[in-house]
Amino acid sequence: MKQQIKQEQINEWKEKYGQIYELPVEDKVAYLREPKMTTFKHAFSAMQKDGEMTFGEVMLNELFIGGDEEIKTNDDYFFAARKELANFFNFDDAEITSEGNNSVIVIGEEKCTVRVITRQDIKTAEKKNPSAKPFVTQEKLFEMICIKKDDVFNDRENASIRFPLYQAIEKLQNKKVATLKKL
Predict the structure, then answer these.
(1) For the chain, which terminus, N or C, has the lower number of CB atoms within 10 Å?
(2) How far apart are CA 160 and CA 40, in angstroms?
(3) Are 105 and 165 in contact (CB under 8 A)?
(4) 183 Cβ neighbours under 8 A, 6+ residues apart
(5) pLDDT digits (tens, 9 = 90+) for 148-160
(6) Which segments of the chain are extended strands (E)?
């Protein structure tokens, strides 16, 4: 039987955490807060060390704020919940337009302008992340190439901006298409 959470509890969570999600799994329900970039960093670090299953465990454990604990502990519930966590990666796509030698990245209503990315920029960003922590190289690269930005780009925890931003930066690095052919 699903745990019944009162609306006043949900309102308290919203005040404390921001966006709240309900994750029903059959006869159980979990309540999750919206992930921040720190959550994704922890999950990706765990995945690098211990594999994909750990990614789901870390995400669910860090985001869980209430509901049926069995969703975290019982494999039948956990596997279904883990699959649904992929929905946290559904962000708006960034639009990229050229402005002279620079590129304008637009995510929703927010925009930033970046200069051309060089091989040296990437090497420098990688050196600033010697332990290869997830997303740190992208953060450092963005800091180096950003010419101007809306205030929302200052929030490193905003995953709905950071993921599309990092994807756009990746696209800017790979404008040409290469195909290796065996002869």
Answers:
(1) C
(2) 12
(3) yes
(4) none
(5) 999 999 999 999 9
(6) 20-25, 28-33, 64-67, 95-99, 102-107, 110-114, 146-149
% pLDDT > 90, the chain: 74
Which tokens hold the place of 121? 């920029």
Which residue, chain included where needed, has tokens 């956990």?
Answer: 78
Contact 72, 82 (CB under 8 A): no
Residue-wise DSSP of 64-79? EEEE-THHHH-HHHHH
Each residue of 67-87: pLDDT tens digit?
999 999 999 999 999 998 877
Cα 56 to Cα 62: distance, rounded to the nearest angstrom? 10
> What 3-state class would DSSP assign to 155?
coil
- What is the average per-residue pLDDT within 158-165? 93
Structure tokens at 14: 């919203």
Measured CA to CA, the distance from residue 92 to residue 118 in angstroms comes to 26
Three-state secondary-structure class, residue 148: strand
Name the residue type at position 167.
Answer: Q
